[in-house]
Amino acid sequence: MAHQPYHSPASYRGRSYDLSHLDPFVFEAASAKVPRPLRINVRFTNHCYSEAFDPDQHAPNDPTIRDGTRNRAFAPDRYALSLHLPALIQGLVTPGARVHETAARRNWMYAAAMEIPVANTRYQIFFELRRTMPERRRFQDLDMVVESAYPADPDRPAPNVLGRMNFLLLAGNVYLGLKTSTRR
């Protein structure tokens, strides 16, 4: 049976871009709060390789990517950085990895220092982490949706974050239904 891609290849200015690196995957995280490793299912949205369509910046004949009722445009810089996303997400199991609670309080941000496209650019990865629905818990414990990822823009204000938390603590708290808000 042929592999069905989660994201169809993107076409941009005569070139095709493979998105198979953004296929869903499961990784394990050992939280001190849970006596066994937690299985986290990861999915990525098209915001990891696209940006809001702006008719002043994007060519009218460039293909668009539908996101609900809005059009988005393929973003080569976001795509290049997205190649690192699976490894960065799996790196959250490093004991010192910290994530930031966003002002929306339903999602989190991980800021990774990257050399691409500019040295020491903060690559901001926004994700939501929830306990898996009961009928799927024999396969996984938590669902992570990486909602967006893009380099920090020095001309725009930094994301509004409330506090930070160790990712392994966050994973354990989400799984157990405990408080996840950070101290301020």
Characterize the structure shown.
This protein is mostly beta strands and 184 residues long. Helix content is 12%, strand content 38%. The strands form three sheets. A seven-stranded mixed beta sheet has the order 3-4-11-10-9-8-12. Strands 5-7-6 form a three-stranded antiparallel beta sheet. A two-stranded antiparallel ribbon has the order 1-2. It is globular. The chain starts with 9 loop residues before the first strand and ends in an 8-residue tail after the last helix.
What overall geometry do the principal axes of the alpha carbons give?
Answer: globular
Poorly predicted parts: none
Largest sheet: 7 strands, mixed
Q: How many E-type strands?
A: 12
Helix count equals 3
What strand line-up does the widest sheet have?
A: 3-4-11-10-9-8-12
Share in helix: 10-25%
Structural class: mainly beta
The gyration radius over C-alpha positions equals 17 Å
Kindly, what is the distance between the CA atoms of the first and last residues, rounded to a whole number of angstroms? 51 Å
Could you report the average pLDDT, rounded to the nearest whole number? Answer: 89
H and E string = EEEEEEEHHEEEEEH
Strand content: 35-45%
Number of discrete domains: 1
Name some characteristics of this structure.
3 helices; three-stranded antiparallel β-sheet; seven-stranded mixed β-sheet; mainly beta; 184 residues
Give me a quick take on this structure.
12% of the residues lie in helices and 38% in strands.
